[in-house]
Each structure stands twice: as C-alpha cells, then as structure tokens.
Design goal:
This protein has about 500 residues and is of the alpha+beta class. It folds into two domains: about 250 residues, Uridine Diphospho-n-acetylenolpyruvylglucosamine Reductase, domain 3, CATH 3.30.465; about 190 residues, Vanillyl-alcohol Oxidase, Chain A, domain 3 (3-Layer(aba) Sandwich). It contains 17 helices and 18 strands. It starts with 10 loop residues before the first helix and ends in a 15-residue tail after the last helix.
Amino acid sequence: MALGGRPRAGFEAVGMSRRAFLHAAGVGAAAAAVACTHGGRPGLPALSMPPEAGPNWSRLRSRLSGSLVLPGDADYAAARRSFNRLFDGRRPAGVVLCVRPEDVQLAVEVAATSKLPIAARSGGHSYAGYSTPDQGLVVDLAKMAGVEVRPDGTAVVGAGTRLIDLYTAMAEAGRCLPAGTCPTVGIAGLTLGGGLGVLNRKLGLTCDRLLSATVVTSDAMLRTASTVSEPDLFWALRGGGGGNLGIVTAFEFSTERAPDLTVFSLGFPGGSVTSVLGGWQEWIQAAPDELWSNCVVSAGRPPTCRVGGCFIGSVSALQPLLGELLRFSDTRPVRRFLRGMSCADAMRYFAHCSQRSVRQCHLEGEPGGLLARESFVASSRVMARPIADPDRVASLLDRPAGVDALFDGLGGAVNRVAVGATAFPHRTAIATVQIYASADEAHRQQAARVQAEVATGLGELVGTGAYVNYLDPGLPDWARAYYGPNLGRLREIAHRYDPDGVFSFPQGLTQA
C-alpha cells in the first residue's frame, strides 16, 4: 500500500566487489561496446532452436551464469513466488535467476524462439501478477543488485536492487534519489512506470532522474538508452511501464545531497473526511515544493482519514504550513506526530522499518528478512481536477473497513516537466489515488467488487486516468488511462523495438 559521501556505497551490502557489480549490471565501456544479432552475440553462441520449438531447457541451463529453476526443482515454489499471495497459484514454465546481462539475453532469446511468454521481475510487486506469467518464463533480476555512488553524485543501480538497499547505499554516500516507500519494491518497476515517492514535489519523479539505462531488447541485443543513444527508447522507458520495451539490467541516475526532513502524521476524527479532504486538496496545490503530503481515507462507518507527509526543513518551519491545512479543513486532529529526521531515517520511517535492521527489512524467506508478503486487490485513478464535492468520497468509503483510498500529492517539480518530455503523462495532475483492499483468497471476489465500486466512483470525481505501476486487469480503456496523449508515440516505439510481440502481455503496449 506504500508508494517501493562514499563513492562506493552499497557493494558490501550485496556481497559484490565494484568490478563484479559493474560487470553483472552490464555497465561500463566494455558493455557499451557489445553488439549482437538475432543469432546471438560474440562469446555467447545462439541456442540454435528451430522456430516455435519447445524450450531447450538443458541447453539454456548449460549456458547460464545464473541458474534455471523448473517445476519439480526443490526451489521452484520459492522462485515462482511474488509479493502478492493471491498470485501463488501461478506456475511459470521456468524462472531464470540472472546474475549477468548475458543471462537476460539468453532468456529473451529462448522466449523469442519458442514463442514463450516472458516477464521481468525486479521486486515482484506487480499488482496484476504479470511478473509471474502462467506457463511463461520469469526473468528474475534479484541477484543483479548493487549501488555505486560515484564522486560526481551519479549512481549506477542494478535492476534487481530493492529500495531498502538503495536508500541504505545512498545514506552511506550522503545522497538521495526520489523513489518509493515500500522497502521491498524493486527499482526497475518503480522507475519504468514513473516513480512516485515522498520527494517528488522537490526532486521530481524517479524517472526524471534517469540518465541512462542498459536494456536487453526483444532481439536479445544489449543496448544503452540515453538522450544520445537510442533516444526514443530512452523517452519510452521513462514512464512507459515495466516489461513493455525490454528488460533493463542497470540504471544510471543523477542524485542530490541528502536533506534533513521533518515527517508528520495527523489523524482526524471519524466523520471529518469531507472537510479534511476538501481542505487538503486546496492546501497541497498551494504548498511549497519542499512539502509532500498524502491524505488517506479509510473505509468505516463513519470513514476516517489521516494526513501525512514530509517537509524539507525544520519542525518549526513546518508548523505554519500545518496551521494552513487546519485552516483550510476547519478541523482539529485527534492525533499528531512531528519529528525531524535525516533523509535516511525518514525513508525507514515511511517503510515502517525504523525499528528493524536493513536485513530484517526484506521479505520472509530472504536472508534475515522479517517482512510478510501481502494479499490484496488494487487499482488507481489520477486526480486531474479538484473534487467538487468531497462528501461523495466519504459516501464511497462509508462501508465496512478493509479498503483505503490514498491520495498522494503531485505538483511541484513533477508539473514543471512537459507532458510529452517523457512517457509519463500525468504531469498536470494534483495527485494520484491508490485504491487498495486487503483480501485473502476466500474473499477475493468480494474485495474486488468493493475496490471496483470505489475506483469507478472516484473516476467520476477526479478523472479516468490511472498510474501504470498500479496495474488493474479490469480497468476500462486501460491504455488511454495509463498513457494519455503519449499512447500513440509509445505504441509506435514498442512495435519498432518489439515487432514480434516478444514482451506482449495483457496490458502491454504491443496489444491491439
């Protein structure tokens, strides 16, 4: 439900030397010089399978630097598992645990040759479960993780890096990168969909910080996408959604010096949703870039709400701004929390990891991990206009507890990038709205109905746009909702780089 110094920070945490990480991620002069064709690339013989033949698993396994997990293998149950327990029934044909870009290239070549569905997995948080396709090939990038923060402040990040490890490495270097709040989200999916987080209004989206990406395209070529190399691909990767255009193995970002923050949370009494949400939407539009905030409306009878966020500055400087919120909403909070923190501590606070070690802030089943997987259905809408009647939101959430609507503020630096400058289209929006309903398998259909009712009602109030990182298989006109005016260019680029639909999936850009 959450949003995902030293020049060598981060390598020790993932057990890699600098040279090993750069080689594994596929960055540097040697990787940039690589060329390959449909038949393979120098030093990596093609798998030589006839078109549409079944996968030659033995040959693939023999060529990998990583490993291949198949049904019947002892570690298959763990390898196929994603974050959302509702997708535990998915049974991929195989999972490639990649350690080098060459592993990704081999996996793509197998999928293309044998017409096998393929999906990349960074953190495995896909809301629609597309990162674990039934009878398809999963390309797991978890072992391609690591962070190098260079002396000039740029950072090279392996595509399998989880946000908790990214923030830890950034803290060691005294830097920050605007990104999400869930500690186990992978950097790849977050960035490729745009990248929402608590520093967006001051520092922009995660994708706005992207300088280049190393990506394996549908022809198994390893390409570098930037403003000067494959510029159309680079444009599309910044908001065009994960899995559409290739499999990224590494990212290069610009970062900023880590600021000190004040985090805050205000809990309001039941029955105050109308006044608080109405006031919040005015307040966030008028707020300085240094302030980010969300308003979470939780179902109940009556529904309740809370306003949280962070401010780049001191507690004393934040106080007058919170006073303005209370003036706009004409409501007093019943709970109030404010605390000054370092950027690193603030990220751990938003990740609910303040009292845990970095190792413990990984999922159960990973070394030292204590965080449980979740079970939910979700969707989103983009708040393109203010809500004329906030009481209608209160009415939508006037139902038994279990569903939340999270209004996450945009604006600031996000709005100052032109709609067509990157693939992310929602530059003029006030906020995104995440509709999240907890659900176990027994109550999945009921929760889905409730979530759909709330999402449909919110769409009538705020607009029909949606955020591609909150994929919803039931979303009407999903392509236009996710990509808006950028859809035509995105589809043209996707068909150019993937003419045979190797990366096709139900809500993919190569779909009709």
